Amino acid sequence: MSKLIFFDINGTIVKRDERTDIPYKKAIDSFLNVKDGMDGVDTSARSDKDVFIEVLEIHNETFSEDKWKEFLKLYEEQLKEFKESDVWRENVHSKTFINELYKTEHKLSLITGELSIGAKYKLEKIGVWKYFKTGGFGEDGLKRFDIAETALKKAKKLYGEDFNEMYIIGDTILDIKTARHLGAKVISITTGSNSKEELEKLNPDYIIDNFKEIKDLFL
C-alpha cells in the first residue's frame, strides 16, 4: 500500500542559509524603499503573506490587498532575476531521494509557506518541481495548519485515498506540530532552523541528518 508523503521546502528540499530568501528580501526592500527591511524577522515555517504583514507592521504600514499585489509583482521580478543563480541549492541528497520516490507507488505533495510561484522557481532550480503535482502553498492559508489542511484536501482529490500512511518531512518544530494536526507521522531533518535537540523534545517519529537514512522506509 502506498504512502502519502508531504515535503517542506526550505531547510528540507532546498538548503537553508543566508542566501535562501534573498529574492524575497530584495523585493521587500524595493517595495518599502529601505535597506535590510527584514532584519530580525523569522521566516521559518511561515507563509510568505504572514511574513509580509509582519514586515509592514515593523515599518508602521498597514496591510492591504493592493499592497500585497504590488509586492508580488516585485517578488516575481526578483525570482526571475535569480533563476540561474546559486541562491537555491539541493539539501543533503534531496533530489536523488525524491527522484527515487517518484518511481514508486508513493504519492508526493508539498506543505510550505512558500507561494506556489516561489516554490516553482526554487524546485525547478533543484530539478524536482516536476515530481510534485499538488501541494499546499502560501496562498492557501495564512497559517501552517490551514495550509496543511488544504494540502491534504488537494492530495485526496488528486490521488484519492489509496494510501495507508501519511508522512510529513520537515526541518522545524512547526512541521512536527503540523504532522500531529493531520494525524501523520513526522520525519524531522536536522538541516534547518531548529536544532536536533529542539526537535527531539517534541518526539518526532524519525530524526535524520540525511535523506539516505530513510531510504529503507520508502524504497
Short description:
By secondary structure, the chain is α/β, with parallel strands linked by helices. It has nine helices and five strands. The radius of gyration is 17 Å and the shape is globular.
How would you explain this protein's 3D organization?
This protein is α/β, with parallel strands linked by helices and 219 residues long. It has 2 domains: 3-17 and 89-218, Rossmann fold, CATH 3.40.50.1000; 22-81. It is built from 9 helices and 5 strands; from the N terminus they run βααααβααβαβαβα. It has helices at residues 22-32, 48-58, 65-81, 94-102, 116-126, 144-159, 173-182, 196-200, 215-218, and strands spanning 3-7, 107-110, 165-170, 185-189, 206-208. It has a 5-stranded parallel sheet. It is globular. The two termini are 12 Å apart. The relative contact order is 0.19. The mean pLDDT is 96.
Provide the fold topology:
Layout: E1 3-7, H1 22-32, H2 48-58, H3 65-81, H4 94-102, E2 107-110, H5 116-126, H6 144-159, E3 165-170, H7 173-182, E4 185-189, H8 196-200, E5 206-208, H9 215-218
